[in-house]
Prior knowledge:
By secondary structure, this protein is mainly β.
Amino acid sequence: xxxxxxxxxxxxxxxxxxxxxxxxxxxxxxxxxxxxxxxxxxxxxxxxxxxxxxxxxxxxxxxxxxxxxxxxxxxxxxxxxxxxxxxxxxxxxxxxxxxxxxxxxxxxxxxxxxxxxxxxxxxxxxxxxxxxxxxxxxxxxxxxxxxxxxxxxxxxxxxxxxx
Length: 163
């Protein structure tokens, strides 16, 4: 029995991933604490892939992210707040937010978005605040915000939609 206990203890000491409380990796150049990941002003070109799946808040502002792809947020099913303002985002791939049913606030202001379509926002059933000011939105298609429960939508300086 002493040999078995010693072997078990050795295995636990050699394998830190089995220990309770070990934090998942944080993306290079970012700060991670609690359920928050801060990657603002780090010259990111893409949304980082190694974000802990339990993350609820991500700060990705003031980078050079040019698009949001379907695969970027797939594993982040617990996101509540996503801040992507002041990047160079010109495209949002349809279905990119499909797995973000818990997202409450989305900041896309200060980017280069020209057109919003309903398929770009699909999956954001709980969204309450959407920031879109400072983009190049020239028109909104019918039913763009259909299915959303947004309380505040801010687009161009001349248009503020609130429900």
